[in-house]
Design goal:
The chain is of the alpha+beta class and 425 residues long. It folds into three domains: 53-67 and 253-401, Beta Barrel (Elongation Factor Tu (Ef-tu), domain 3); 76-108 and 213-250, Beta Barrel (OB fold (Dihydrolipoamide Acetyltransferase, E2P)); 110-205. It has helices at 2-34, 110-160, 165-211; strands spanning 49-54, 56-72, 75-78, 87-90, 97-98, 103-107, 214-216, 221-226, 246-250, 254-261, 273-278, 282-295, 301-309, 319-335, 340-342, 345-352, 355-367, 370-375, 382-384, 398-401. Strands 2-10-13-12-11-14 form a six-stranded antiparallel beta barrel. Strands 3-9-8-5 form a four-stranded antiparallel beta sheet, with no helix packed on it. The protein has a three-stranded mixed beta sheet with strand order 19-1-20, with no helix packed on it. Strand 16 (345-352) and strand 17 (355-367) form a beta hairpin. The longest helix is centred in the first third of the chain and has 51 residues, at 110-160.
Length: 425
């Protein structure tokens, strides 16, 4: 009986609980249905952050890069003035500095000395012949004068009959003979004088040959090559090898014989400054001395010469690269990444009051990753660092200054270096 009552109470309690649960659930649903609508979700999206740089002042030095080989400014080939003589002494070698007139090599001269002795004898003979001819002329003139006097006296005597015709003819003949002898003597003098002149000319030639038995430097300079060999027979080429006895770099002056693309040639002017760098980290300053008037049709390259002067560290034949300064300017600057160019028009994306503004600009020189802005912006303006971003006029942005994109310092045209300054295309 008690067990039955317990079950009855449990059933009643369960029914009451279920009824209460249903009542609470219904109440919650009613409250939810009757509750006011929730406020709509916030749909606004934050503006994107963009890197920007500020327009700053800067100095620009536009340069053109050239490459080539070091060559002598002027190279002199030295060969003997006379050939066929043996080289008996060499006084210099490669790398030696010489002055104009220094004896580089000595040739054997015994044959020339013998010829000089023969010429001395010939001059002595001709001198004696001239003296003898002059004395003969004096004697012949005296005979002519005497014969003419006798003839002058015989003329009136023969006319008056006091002198026979045969005697008169003898005097006429004698006058003519002495005159002919005088003329012959004078011809002998002229012949002797001609012989002496010939001997003197031969002596001058021998003296010149004797003097040139010493091969001398025609100018100050540096011996770059020696082809002369002891015992070799001197000729236009040392030992017949086709090589000159010596090669001299006049005054030791070196140039860079370089090539330039044809598009850069119009920017070059004689006298422009340049820096040349060669192997071994050697640098030398120079000036543009020569611009070739021709462009190679095969390579589309032009030739230029940069004068470097006498610099011992520079060796002829070495490879060198040069930077020629072609233009300088001072103005506003931006990184090249901030400028976009299309259809011949350059633009930037400026940021004004957190809004994007597309502006057309005029650019100038480009160097070291920077570009000169001639118009369209003012100093201090803020510009998006990368012009290729997908932004349009009026877009809202959150500018963030990019210190890495801003130029750390102006490009100094006076601090030109092949390691830091280059031509930006």
């Amino acid at each position: 009986m008690k067990f039955a009552k317990s079950l009855l109470w449990l059933a009643v309690a369960a029914a009451v609980g279920v009824a209460a649960y249903k009542s609470g659930l219904v109440e919650k649903l009613e409250q939810k249905a009757n509750a006011p609508a929730a406020a709509p979700a916030e749909n606004a999206v934050k503006a994107p952050a963009v890197s920007v740089v500020r327009v700053q002042q800067g100095d620009f030095a536009e340069t053109v890069l050239v490459t080539g080989s070091l060559v002598p400014r002027e190279e002199i080939t030295v060969s003997p003035e006379i050939e066929g003589l043996k080289v008996v002494k060499i006084n210099v070698d490669q790398g030696d500095r010489v002055k104009k007139g220094d004896v580089l090599a000595v040739l054997v001269s015994e044959t020339l000395d013998a010829q000089m002795a023969q010429n001395d004898a010939a001059l002595a003979r001709t001198t004696a012949a001239i003296a003898q001819a002059k004395s003969q002329i004096v004697e012949a003139e005296a005979r002519v004068k005497e014969a003419q006097s006798n003839l002058d006296r015989a003329k009136p005597l023969n006319k008056e009959g006091y002198l026979s015709d045969s005697t008169y003819e003898q005097r006429v003949s004698l006058a003519r003979t002495t005159s002919a002898q005088l003329a012959a003597t004078k011809d002998g003098l002229r012949s002797a004088e001609a012989a002496k002149g010939e001997a003197e000319a031969q002596r001058r030639e021998l003296s010149w040959r004797r003097a040139n038995a010493e091969v001398k430097a025609p100018a100050d300079g540096l011996i770059s090559r020696r082809g002369a060999r002891l015992g070799a027979i001197a000729s236009g080429s040392a030992a017949g090898s086709g090589e000159a006895m010596f090669r001299i770099i006049e005054n030791g002056e070196i140039e860079l014989d370089a090539e330039v693309t044809e598009t850069q040639m119009p920017k070059l002017r004689v006298g422009q400054t340049a820096i040349v760098k060669v192997a071994g980290d050697v640098e030398a300053s120079g000036k543009l001395r020569l611009i070739s008037p021709e462009i190679n049709p095969a390579t589309r390259l032009g030739k230029v010469r940069i004068f470097l002067g006498d610099t011992p560290e520079l060796k002829s034949g070495a490879f060198g690269s040069g930077v020629i300064q072609t233009a300088t300017s001072h103005g506003l600057s931006l990184p090249v990444t901030a400028v976009s160019t299309a259809n011949g028009e350059s633009t930037v994306l400026a940021v004004v009051n957190d809004k994007v503004q597309r502006r057309i600009v005029t650019t100038g020189l480009s160097v070291g990753g920077l570009v000169e802005i001639k118009s369209g912006l003012a100093e201090g303006n803020t510009v998006i660092a990368r012009a290729g971003s997908f932004l349009r006029d009026g877009d809202a942005v959150r500018p963030v200054v990019d210190s890495t994109a801003e130029p750390a310092a102006p490009v100094n045209s006076g601090a030109m270096s092949t390691g830091t300054v280059s031509k930006i295309q």
